[in-house]
Write a structure and sequence with these properties.
About 20% of the residues lie in helices and about 35% in strands. It has 7 helices and 39 strands. It starts with a strand and ends with a helix. The longest helix is centred in the C-terminal third of the chain and has 34 residues. With about 650 residues, it is an alpha+beta fold. β14 and β15 form a beta hairpin. Among the domains are: about 160 residues, no CATH class; about 110 residues, Immunoglobulin-like (Sandwich). The strands form 9 sheets. Strands 24, 25, 26, 27, 32, 34, 36, 38 and 39 form a 9-stranded mixed beta sheet that branches. It is globular, with a radius of gyration of 32 Å.
Length: about 650
Amino acid sequence: MKKWQTLSGNSVPGKSLRIREGCGPRMRAYKRVLFLGLLLSLILFSALAAPYLNGFSSTEASTISRMVPITQTSNQPGASFVEISIPTTNSGPNAIAAGPNHTFWFTEFNISRIGEYTPFNMSYPFHEYQVPEENAVPATITFDNSTGKVWFTDQKNGAGSVWMFDRTRPLSTAFTQYNTSIMGSVPVQVMVDGQGNVWFTELVGNKLGKLNYPSYSLTEYSLPTSNAGPAEIAFQTGPQGQLLVWVTETYADKVARLDTSTNKFKEYVSPNGIHAPVGIVVDDNGTVWVSEHGGSFIVSLDTTTSSFTKYPTSLPSNYDISAPATLNLDNNGRLWFVEHFLNRVGRLDPASRTIDEFNIPTSASGTLLAYSLQSALDQNGDFYFTEFYANKIGMLFSNATSPVTLETPRTQILGLVAGQTATLELPISNKLAAPLHVGLGVSSSFTRTGVTSSKQASVNPAQISLGPHANGTTILSVTPGLLASSGLYSVSLSASDGNASSIGILFIKVSQSLAGIVITYLPVIAIISAIVVGGAYLYARRRPGQCSTPSPRANLQQLPGSPTRLVVLVAASLLLTRLATSLLPVAQIPAYVNAKCPGLPPPSPSFNGGVAGLDYGEILDIAAIAFFVLVLLLAFRKWRNDRKADKNKL
């Protein structure tokens, strides 16, 4: 039994106050816990604010590296484009595929036709063929070299089919339609394997389809992830000679592989995310290459280690992403692609870690003239692509080069601790016999879009003028954010004369800092601290009001752990979180992809936007700290009010 004593005196006329023995030590213990809680909150806030106050940078260590200028590979640098207008206006050329004898086949998305283009037929290079279906929507196309047949997908609303066109037959019987098992499956890409089997993806049907040669009976394989959005296909020969079919899952942000010997899928997921992957190819070394149509990266997948590496492109001025599309692999191991939001053709050379980009001549404000769902390489390595909005077919010669070059380390991987700064001096060369003004820009894989703040990477000077065949230098500073997790990152430095760009790519291996680890677990720390402070307060207050004896009902109402208080605390923390997210701008990447790319997969229906500036982990930090502070303030206020009340009674 607890002992109680009654005090009376002049300090409390006519009243007595019952005080429990041992209450003083308990209150002192409670105050110590409260003080420790306040101290902990100060430490937490300091840890969270530190990276923002110092700009995520540190000058404790830096690296200076001087690079050797890249050698000139062409005596006449520059980009040579050819653009040909399609005879039918607003035909919507969407995809193009190479056939024999320098012939190309393309789809006309807007007018239900497929076309044949023969560049060397100067009298009449175009032939168009009407698809015998009302409101057909030809999307992608391929040519079967073994049979001479043309295959294309049809994305007509409410239907789903693949067509075969045999030009050796009379036109009345030249087209044959093969329907998918469900209506509205939305086939995207079609390809023919070495055995004559026809493979295609079903975006909405979430299946990989196969028309089995020679009967062309239908077999369908359901993707392991629901609503994965299978987009494009690549073939690879497996270790036992079996066919491996690779598929990009644009809604699920994954890459899948079907082993035809077992009919089982294996999925690969990047820890840093690959956003709306579309294009896919496999090189001679077995490396899988993917384009991020929802980002600004070409991504490699090493299947032996399941590791992903990102190669950033340059960035447009009016969008957050460059949106590279279908990939083509040439005989030199270089990857060609069209960047929808840059209106450029890109070419990545993995061996030199460089990207060359060339502005497509036709351009206009507010349109994406470079849009091409599927591009192609001819036997000379020249790159062909469609211009959907310009109603043209474009071509870039394989030997195109940029007049300005720069180079980052080809084999070196820079090691940094998060928050540490590295500085590199990089050379820039003018290959022209005329003066050249060069603009410099930076993008990186520090963010999902490639957009990089000056705190993370910057270049000085950002513009430089070079004389004929002259060299110059620029300083690149890189500082992985203090919150960066451990892993391999990439930074691209682009040098452009306004018509072409040369991009050097630097790889950085980042180790997470101690402060970053603390901030990573900040929500857990804050919530546990709130529980400790609240529990200590409840323990100190388990007897009536601060050593006084109000009624049990009043005591229940005053407890900070009562249902009413808990509801108020949770509601307030959720309100603060909602307020924080509503005040931040929402990324518009899904709108770009959906509105500007007919025929290409839109973003995942479950995607609800991203937050620019802060990610959801940082928002969770804010919410957890807000919850902790609310508990702390309410407990402190209650303790202070009760103490005042006791003094007044005394």
